[in-house]
Amino acid sequence: MNPSTPVRRAAEEIVLFIQELDKHSLGDFWLPTNAFVILSTMALLLRCAVEEGALGAQLPEAMSFKLAQDLRKALQSYKQDAAWDLGDICISQFSDVLDKFAAYNTERFDDVANLEHFLFSDAGSGAGLFWDLSGNYSDS
């Protein structure tokens, strides 16, 4: 996927929206389904980061990965400062994965299946993250 596709831009807009929430907004009523939107946004950003890495970018330097880190940071801050729990599922599902992405410091990888094994070998929580955005699920 090209890093400038509409899908990635939509995920970026969601991250920016979440980062702009203030304490009053965090106290408003939020539908529980919004937790799924946050979770899906994180999964999409990590998928985009993998594809940016496949194009030759260092994985920890991929823009999508940086956006994913920004999302986690905002969610953790809101949890701590405002007891906002809508991001809890996302944090619990992807914190270990983000840490592993940050540790994956190689310039290029050729086999997404090997990367998926590296990321989820002991976590299990993100297995199946790497789907084909055309709708074909890849269960490597």
How would you describe the overall organization of this protein?
The model is unreliable at 123-140 (pLDDT under 50). The longest helix has 22 residues, at 33-54. This protein is an all-alpha fold and 140 residues long. It is built from six helices and no strands.
Could you give a short description of this structure?
With 140 residues, the protein is an all-alpha fold. The protein has helices at residues 6-19, 23-27, 33-54, 63-82, 88-103, 112-120.
The amount of helix comes to 55-70%
Structural class: mainly alpha
Mean pLDDT: 78
User: How many whole angstroms does the radius of gyration measure?
Assistant: 15 Å
CA-CA gap between termini: 18 Å
**Major beta sheet summary:** none
Number of helices: 6
Backbone shape: globular
Outline the low-pLDDT stretches: 123-140
Order of helices and strands: HHHHHH
- Quote the beta fraction: under 5%
**Strand runs, count:** 0
Task: Spell out the blueprint of helices and strands.
Blueprint: H1 6-19, H2 23-27, H3 33-54, H4 63-82, H5 88-103, H6 112-120
Features:
0% strand, 140 residues, mainly alpha
